[in-house]
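A reminder from the course coordinator: this example appears on the midterm review sheet, so study it carefully.

Given structure:
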């Protein structure tokens, strides 16, 4: 095992992040940074900033497409946005999130759809939700050579089963079940597991029990990495903000202030200024006047 530090933030020495880097980071106690992105300019910015991993989440449905939840998101929606993100990403490990009904119906369907994320979407890996009920699917996708990230806890595609977006595994029996699921997913071949909205002590325990990294969202600081939905972190999506989100900026307000300034300048004709316009030469202008006479 290399003892060289794995620094994804050094501008001089950037290497493509792989699933192997994920494992090495865990072994060396270096937290993994992950954010969601859904388009080309954003993925360019995240990649240039040094993020370890970009998840094209099916949260796309809520924070970009305006749906109530993630259930209406289709394979075609996901692939369209994955392609844009892939074009903007050079170093980060990319993860395409398998949408509702793209892997639940049959193992064959799941393998075919997982393959489309790599072949048509340009992703490095895929993510799917669920524990013991997904083991055959995970095994088959991994067997096809496609790295799989698991997702346990609050799995948004089961929102109707949970009766809303609620924290999970707060009682001992459910917590034990989640730990078992995590171990089973690791055994089935997952290279990492997202833990969403679960108690911090449990997430820390799961992280210690697994050799593969855990990526937490609302799961405390004991995970091997952290992920947030970019729109939440930037303050671009205020329909609801989970308690676990840290809003690092308020871009919605900044966008509104900028747009108000633009509207005002259009109305007062301060925009466009001379520096934003160009003119015909005097000769060409004169010719035009002659022609129009
Ligand atoms: O869809 C998504 O963005 C996700 C993250 C919240 C982990 O699954």
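Designed residues:
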């Amino acid at each position: 095992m290399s003892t060289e530090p794995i620094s994804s933030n050094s501008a001089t020495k950037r290497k493509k992040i792989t699933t192997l880097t994920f494992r090495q980071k865990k072994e060396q106690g270096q937290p993994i940074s992950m954010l969601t992105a859904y388009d080309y300019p954003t993925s360019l910015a995240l990649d240039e900033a040094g993020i370890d991993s970009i998840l094209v989440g099916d949260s796309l449905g809520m924070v970009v497409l305006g749906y109530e939840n993630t259930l209406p998101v289709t394979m075609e929606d996901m692939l369209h946005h994955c392609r844009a993100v892939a074009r903007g990403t050079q170093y980060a490990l990319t993860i395409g999130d398998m949408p509702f009904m793209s892997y639940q119906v049959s193992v064959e369907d799941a393998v075919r759809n997982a393959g489309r994320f790599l072949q048509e979407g340009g992703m490095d890996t895929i993510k799917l939700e669920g524990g013991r009920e997904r083991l055959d699917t995970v095994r088959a996708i991994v067997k096809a050579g496609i790295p799989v990230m698991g997702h346990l806890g609050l799995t948004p595609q089961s929102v109707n089963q949970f009766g809303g977006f609620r924290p999970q595994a707060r009682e001992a029996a459910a917590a034990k079940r989640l730990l078992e699921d995590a171990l089973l997913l690791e055994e089935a071949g997952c290279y990492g597991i997202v833990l969403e909205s679960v108690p911090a002590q449990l997430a820390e325990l799961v992280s210690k029990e697994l050799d593969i990294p855990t990526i937490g969202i609302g799961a405390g600081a004991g995970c091997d990495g952290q992920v947030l939905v970019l729109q939440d972190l930037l303050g671009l999506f205020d329909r609801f903000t989970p308690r676990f989100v840290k809003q690092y900026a308020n871009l919605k307000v900044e966008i509104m202030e900028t747009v108000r300034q633009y509207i005002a300048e259009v109305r007062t004709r301060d925009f466009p200024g001379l520096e934003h316009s160009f003119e015909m030469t005097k000769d060409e202008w004169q010719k035009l006047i002659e022609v129009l006479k």
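The chain is about 40% helix and 10% strand. The beta strands are 32-36, 53-56, 93-97, 125-127, 148-153, 192-196, 214-217, 225-228.
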